[in-house]
Design goal:
Blueprint (H helix, E strand, L loop, with lengths): L8 H13 L23 E9 L2 E8 L5 E3 L1 H6 L6 E8 L12 E8 L25 H17 L4 H16 L7 H9 L6 H18 L20 H9 L3 H13 L3 H6 L5 E2 L4 E4 L9 E4 L2 H8 L14 H19 L9 H16 L2 H8 L21 E6 L2 H9 L3 E6 L2 E7 L1
Antiparallel strand pairs: 1-2, 2-3, 4-5, 6-7, 7-8, 9-11, 10-11
Helix pairs in contact: 3-4, 4-6, 7-8, 8-12, 12-13
């Protein structure tokens, strides 16, 4: 229909009213009263587009109170109420752009021969049960994962645990698993040949917690973790890696090497926890419910800490574990290319914790001392360091001291006292 032949609803009504009152159609029309909703008698109505008919464009309205959509009632009366009746049908569309109060379910008019009916009030929208074999929407499942991680946060789980659980669940979803169907999850876990038993145990633990939250019954598969001896690098390899890393990453590595902290514990340290004069660092926020502890640090680490910027209350600013690990891996790759030593690729932040515990046990043969150093509450977690490979055949650096001051410096540098011969003290340190 040509635009010139279309008349708006109000212009038609003005002509009708003008012909009756003897006034011209061009005279100023008085303000119209608000349109009342024919369903709930509310005056909270909003114009919602036009409906084009053979009689001209018909103004449509939507009620902000009950979501009933209707046409201008005066339009039909102006044409002697041509026998048009309307029916409404709920459809899910996008939100209206200019009013946030309007609900998502909207209504469209459908011409029927029966009376109008408001389906918006007939009942709440019910989800149809899914047929067997169909998967739920990924957006809904991701929403459930978000609710689950928030529940872990409220229950006091650590941020690392929450991050890992969420990562494992999203990985299952990405690999095609239906998280609401335990059998589908079992199939996906079983087909992941690149996952070891330890990884599968962690995934099963994460999904088991997810099923408990969503009240899903399942029988967890039985994967037995395999405990391996940790990789223990040489001290010269660690020192070489520290040299080739940037200022912040090198300081983190030196801190972990001397204290045996976890990287998450190191990133939580604040400047008030560091006593640079007495060379002591206090850890008051241990992870995994460990014991708080204090560490004596070297002059080298003190100098490295003094080079860090102090524009934040934390030693390493607002750096997260993920960012710290990513930066370290990139710098480690460059160090491997320069030094041509692929063993460096096996060094991680946690490797330095294993190295520190192993060296302390080899030096003191005191498992309780190592347990206190690592902050363990269960000695079973510390006994693994007693089963590591013996280092009796390794090469050592040797040094001598003529007096107490020289001996003290050697001990602070990591040398171990062996014996005294001809008033000369002998020390050694593993290469």
């Amino acid at each position: 229909m040509a635009a010139s032949t279309m008349l708006s609803t109000r212009s038609i009504l003005d002509k009708k009213a003008g012909s009756k009152n003897g006034k011209s159609a061009g005279s100023k029309r008085p303000a119209q009263p608000p349109i009342k909703c024919p369903e709930c008698d509310s005056l909270k109505t909003w114009k919602d587009g036009l409906r084009y008919t053979n009689l001209g464009p018909m103004q449509r309205y939507i009620c902000r109170n009950c979501a009933y959509r209707f046409s201008d009632p005066d339009f039909q009366h102006a044409f002697n109420g041509s026998d048009m009746s309307e029916h409404v049908q709920n459809v899910l569309t996008k939100k209206l752009k200019r009013h946030a109060d309007l609900p998502n379910p909207r209504q469209v008019c459908v011409a029927l021969t029966e009376g109008a009916k408001n389906l918006a009030i007939s009942g709440a929208r019910q989800e149809k049960p899914m047929r067997e074999g169909t998967k739920p929407d990924k957006a809904d499942v991701k929403g459930k994962i978000l609710e689950f991680t928030w529940k872990l946060k409220r229950d006091g789980y650590s941020n690392t645990t929450i991050e890992h659980y969420g990562k494992f669940l999203k990985s299952l979803l990405k690999k095609g698993a239906d998280l609401m169907n335990p059998e589908s999850v079992k199939d996906v876990i079983a087909t992941q040949d690149q996952w070891g038993n330890n990884t599968k145990c962690l995934v099963v633990a994460a999904y088991h917690s997810f099923t408990s939250f969503n009240e899903i019954h399942w029988k967890p598969p039985k994967y037995k973790p395999t405990r391996k001896l940790p990789f223990i690098p040489l001290e010269k390899e660690i020192d070489a890696l520290i040299v080739y890393c940037g200022k912040k990453t090198a300081t983190r590595l030196q801190l972990l090497k001397e204290t045996g902290m976890r990287i998450g514990e190191a990133l939580k340290l604040k400047w008030i926890d560091v006593d640079l004069e007495r060379k002591i660092i206090t850890l008051n926020n241990p992870e995994k419910h460990g014991n708080p502890r204090a560490f004596k640090i070297s002059d080298k680490l003190v100098a490295m800490l003094n080079r860090l910027p102090k524009n934040n209350d934390k030693l390493f600013g607002k750096t997260s574990v993920a960012i710290a690990v990513s930066n370290f891996y990139n710098q480690r790759k460059r160090a491997v290319a320069k030094l041509q030593n692929p063993r460096l690729l096996r060094i991680t932040f946690h490797t330095l914790r294993h190295w520190k515990a192993t060296m302390e046990y080899q030096k003191t043969r005191d498992i309780l001392h190592v347990m206190k150093l690592l902050g363990h509450k269960n000695i079973q977690n510390t006994l693994i360091y007693t089963h590591l490979v013996s280092y009796e055949t390794d090469d050592y650096h040797s040094a001598t001291a003529d007096n107490v001051q020289e001996a003290r410096k050697l001990i602070e540098s990591g040398f171990e006292y062996i014996c005294t011969t001809n008033d000369i003290m002998l020390f050694r340190k593993r290469k």
